[in-house]
Amino acid sequence: MGAFKTLGKVMVLLVLGAALAGAFMLVRSSKDAEPVSYEQWPDVPRNPAA
Q1: Which pTM value belongs to this model?
Q2: Is the dihedral of CA 33, 39, 45, 50 positive or negative?
Q3: 9 pLDDT exceeds 60?
Q4: What's residue 36's pLDDT?
Q5: How far apart are CA 6 and CA 10, in angstroms?
Q6: 39: pLDDT strictly greater than 80
Q7: How distant, in Å, are the alpha carbons of 6, 9, 14 from that of 3?
Q8: Which letter does DSSP use for residue 2 in this model?
Q9: How far is it, in rounded angstroms, from Cα 32 to Cα 50?
């Protein structure tokens, strides 16, 4: 019975850690994102095999 309690606590800590890491990555990525301009397309070389 003690092993299940320990396993449950470890699982809760892992879920909380994953939620915090996900929130941190979401905040960090939204800050670095640049606005997308559809008027300026990147120069892509043509594919001669197509």
Answers
A1: 0.53
A2: positive
A3: yes
A4: 64
A5: 6
A6: no
A7: 5, 10, 16
A8: H
A9: 35
**pLDDT for 46:** 80
Q: Tokens for 24?
A: 């941190």
How many residues make up the chain in this entry?
50
- Read out DSSP for 8-48? HHHHHHHHHHHHHHHHHHHHHHHHHPPPP-SSS-------T
Distance in angstroms (rounded) separating the CA atoms of residues 29 and 35: 13
- Using a CB cutoff of 8 Å and minimum separation of 24, what contacts does 17-24 make? none
- Token pair, residue 42, equals 């990147």
pLDDT at 33: 61
Q: 5: part of which helix (H) or strand (E)? A: helix 2-32
